[in-house]
């Protein structure tokens, strides 16, 4: 496990330095929130949403109209799960570093603060994640996308059917990025590891 994690990270580092960042959609406590509520990601990185009970969704929105879908924005559909984390994930690729806003369309979850961002500014420019969440709490209605198919703009996948070692694949990079919420953390750790690429790859092959 440990060595194959290193191996996976080394492969990422040797290819494009793309990192994957995990975002929890609710959590084991049932909080109506995304964790982290803002993710710093570079172009080409991915954000993987992990769904907790009982039934949540992720729709791309706009800062100007909280709790309403962005035209042709990504949409995971609802991902119900009775207990624990769902094996179904939704992976969104980050194509540029402009802020990306999203929310849960279930019931009044958005108005309860279940909204978040990718690459929202951390310094207060007015359009921060906290400002988006605060505005969401005042939105008149919570709108589910009607004109796009489930899974649009991303990739719905079952982590258990992914190739290789699914938990290890997203473990290292995502944990670091989420915990620190700092610029380029995932990429930085990947660069650090790439120095040990030869050794890590060797160890990875030995284990695999
Ligand atoms: C903040 O969001 C508003 C509404 O979408 C937009 O008009 C404005 O340009 C944004 N400001 C910044 C600094 O991005
Ligand atoms: C967003 O997450 C940060 C970091 O965990 C937290 O300090 C902040 O209170 C959250 N914002 C809202 C509106 O919940
Ligand atoms: C990035 O581009 C891909 C391919 O066009 C698209 O599916 C995806 O939704 C885009 N990501 C965002 C956050 O818009
Ligand atoms: C994941 O697996 C479950 C159970 O087999 C299935 O119902 C669901 O449709 C799958 N989801 C995806 C996105 O493949």
UniProtKB/TrEMBL annotation:
Keyword tags: Signal
Signal peptide: 1-18
Organism: Lophium mytilinum
Name of the protein described by the UniProt record: Cupredoxin
InterPro entries named in the record: Cupredoxin, Ser-rich/MCO-related
Keyword Signal: yes
Keyword Signal: yes
